[in-house]
Amino acid sequence: MSEISTPDLCDANPDVQVAEPLLRGYGGREAFGGQAVVVRCVDADGPDNTLVKQLAGEPGHGRVLVVDVGGATSNAVLGDLIAADAAANGWAGLVINGCVRDVEVLRSIDLGVMALGSVPRKSNRRGTGERDVTVGFAGVHIAPGNYVYADATGLIVAERALG
Questions:
Q1: Phi-psi group of 115: left, alpha or beta (phi > 0 → left; psi -120 to 50 → alpha; rest → beta)
Q2: Whether residue 24 has pLDDT greater than 70
Q3: pLDDT tens string 67-88
Q4: Every domain of the chain and the residues it spans
């Protein structure tokens, strides 16, 4: 799919889930989409970006990394270094139910990034988190293997690839 338009995808596929307008774009790639790889990275001590860093270093194959930190805004789980790794390894983007940092640099990286907000404090790595789980936030449920599409208008989730 060369051009992503969430309104057009919604019109052609009325069964898609549409996220509530809570997420903002932070990456250098405004429109992105791909198959979801889903992680949950939060515990009683707050956000932990261990899995985010690990996965950003692996081949992305045009997929979208969905990161649920329970909406925590105390610490960022994505910054410029991890984002640069993700872009270099072929990830289409990240969708984060939490915060990012290094916003000025993120805008220069060819990677889609949607998050709740930004905060300068980094995440502490404790090695916690779960991979390949179903998460729910912003009114949508995202399971491993679903497809996520995002642009300046919003974010949608589908059970199959759309085109």
A1: beta
A2: yes
A3: 999 999 999 999 999 999 999 9
A4: 6-158
Q: Which tokens sit at 112?
A: 């889609």
**In which element (H, E) is residue 136 found?**
strand 135-137
> Bridge partners of 67?
39, 96
Task: State the amino acid at position 52 in one-letter form.
Answer: V
Tokens coding 157: 């989730």
CATH, domain range 6-158: 3.50.30.40
70 neighbors 136 (Cβ within 8 angstroms):
no
Alpha helices in the chain (DSSP H): 6-12, 50-56, 80-88, 103-106
Q: Which amino acid is at 152?
A: A
The string of pLDDT tens digits covering residues 88-147 is 999 999 999 999 999 999 999 999 999 999 999 999 899 999 999 999 999 999 999 999
pTM here is: 0.96
Share of the chain above pLDDT 70, in %: 99
| Residues 136, 146 contacting (CB under 8 angstroms) | no
Q: Which region holds residue 108: left if phi is over 0, alpha if psi is between -120 and 50, else beta?
A: alpha
CA within 13 Å, CB half, 48: 17
